[in-house]
Amino acid sequence: MTNLPLSSVEDRLYILRTRWEHYVADGRFEQFIEFAVAVNSLAEHFNRLRLPGLVRLCEGLENAVLARLGDQSKHPVSEADILALQRQIDTLLGSVTTSRPPVVERRAEEPATTPDIDWIKPRSVWLIAAPEKHEMSDALARQLQFFGFSICHTPWGGALPQGDMPLAVLFVPAGNEAQPEEFSFIAAVREACPASQLFYLGVQSVIDPIVALMHAGIDVTILAEEQSATVLNRMLDLVQINEQEKYRVLVVEDSRVAVALIQRTLAEHGIDSHAINDPGTLLEVLESYRPDLILMDMYMPRFNGVEATRVLRQMADYQSLPIVYLSGESDVGMQVEALRLGGDQFLIKPFNPVLLAAVVKTKIERFRETMRSTRLDGLTGLLNHTAAKARLQTMVAQTAEHGTLTVAMIDIDHFKSINDTYGHPVGDQVIRGLAWLLKGRLRSSDLIGRYGGEEFLIGLSDVTPEQARRVIDRIRSDFAALPHAHPGGALYASFSSGIASFPMLDTAASLTEAADGALLQAKRLGRNRVERAVPQ
User: DSSP secondary structure string, 395-444?
Assistant: First the structure.
């Protein structure tokens, strides 16, 4: 089996092609399983890169492969199945090729100045809007351009633009119900842009027409009352690839053969793993490795997996850590008892590697989401009130006696009026717009938190108070120029801010209180301004 580091799309495509060629040549069942794992790995990689069109093609291929998996007696599959799978593979590979930006050839004497990039996503967007919606579509286009998207306006039913495929296509129809002629046009766009994400704005909350649009090729339908407030958030999600810390799995297993198969399967899906064969060292390894999940063999020397799990469930740090049992135990009663005593899932040996990887990733994603939900604000993804206060206390404690730290409190002006006039979805979009600006303009080391409602807490270290004031004031100016699209066009909002600095004030509470007082002064002086706290 080829063992390449899966650091790029090319690596995964090479493995997929190679494993398929080996199966076509030899027809062995094990080769078909490895091919299925390669397809699943590629789908996961495209999903991490937020390329839904390619994910969809991969999932279609994966479903076709799993439907033909069967058992060893059904392999090699028929010639008709080989041809059908080959057509799906060719379609996928062709879509990958057309979805990537063209490579500019370098002359031989020109040195390479930068390393190859694994995947570059286009930032272009096709905006297909009915003439009746030109005001809304123009406002949406201005907002998208503000965040770096390139907009190409295309008429309904007209010729499609030539060149690179867009990241997304936005359909803005005249009414709230798709017409028959629209479906054929959507299908044509879908065929021309297999790797792009297709949005349809302005549907009613009725399932039948939404399903019909999905059949035509739409990936995301956005309700009429949410369209302007939701689409930018979804668009920015497509291009934000914040590479998460690698998933970590602790394998507690005394069989070296099983460990090798498990670790190989996990590695092919970009999952880090550490294996131990003695459960007596479990607590020590947990403390140092800090896994996201444990794969626990049921039967081991000294004590079994259920006993080890019961010990962990008595410790606060490990009460919610996912534990998946691996065993040849086929007695349902024993499995139920094992789950009742603390396990999360039970996989029978020999396990399907595709299923193992899917279970591990799903459990870890939910575990991490639960952990994140305790610290992050659901609307903006910023630190929530409690986490922001804790982070500020840490920053104050880490600031040396002669160091600098400036705290800013920000509040959106006349926010209640925005909610009352345009509705809460648009108000939420205004809050998210400010959150995105703050994340885009500030450093990763800075504190950015949603303090509550339309109020934000900022912490800037290692800059002078005047530098911090200029940074916040520049963001204030940018935010005032940011259009927030809604069905009637666009609105503009502003914010006021107050700042206070260390060491003039030397505790998190006093810095926050002083910045809040300066914020109130900015409001009194007319809003849309930044004021500094006055030393007492």
Answer: HHHHS-TT--EEEEEEEETTHHHHHHHH-HHHHHHHHHHHHHHHHHHS-T
Bridge partner list, 489: 486
With respect to residue 337, please indicate whether it lies within any of the assigned structural domains. Answer: yes
Pair (155, 89) in one structural domain = no
Cα angle 219, 378, 211; round to 5:
20
What is the spatial distance between Cα 200 and Cα 189, in angstroms, rounded to a whole number? Answer: 12
**Residue 112 in domain:** no
d(CA 135, CA 485): 9
Q: Does the reported pTM lie above 0.70?
A: no
pLDDT score for 118? 38
CA dihedral (159, 161, 163, 168) positive or negative: negative
Structure tokens, 315 = 């410790």
Residues 231 and 255 occupy one common structural domain:
no
Q: Same structural domain for residues 271 and 333? A: yes
Contacts of 139 (CB under 8 A, 6+ apart): 228, 483, 485, 486, 489, 490
Going from the C-alpha of 509 to that of each of 79, 393, 427, 457, 501, the distances in angstroms are: 73, 8, 29, 12, 12
Of 373, 408, 438, the residue at which a domain comes to its end is 373
Domain that holds residue 202: 124-239
CB 342 within 8 A of CB 310: yes
Q: Are residues 417 and 515 located together in one domain of the fold?
A: yes
Q: What share of the chain is helix, strand, coil (3-state, %, to 5)?
A: 50, 15, 30
- For the chain, count helices (H), then strands (E): 18, 17
Same domain assignment for residues 364 and 393: no
Q: Which of 423, 431, 271, 435 is nearest to 357 (CA)?
A: 271
Q: Are residues 432 and 359 in the same domain?
A: no
* 410/497 Cα distance (integer angstroms): 4
If you average pLDDT over residues 450-468, what whole number do you get?
Answer: 92
Instruction: Decide which of 98, 114, 132 is a domain's last residue.
Output: 98
The pair of structure tokens assigned to 368 is 């991490």
Q: Residue 313 is part of a domain; what is its CATH number?
A: 3.40.50.2300
pLDDT digits (tens, 9 = 90+) for 475-519: 999 999 988 878 778 889 999 999 999 888 889 999 999 999 999
Residue closest to 261 by CA, chosen among 355, 366, 368, 367: 355
Tell whether the model's pLDDT for residue 351 goes beyond 90.
no
Q: 516 and 394, same structural domain? A: yes
Instruction: Output the furthest CA–CA distance in the chain (Å, rounded).
Output: 85
Domain-located, residue 141: yes
528, 393: one domain = yes
Two tokens at 282? 């479990």
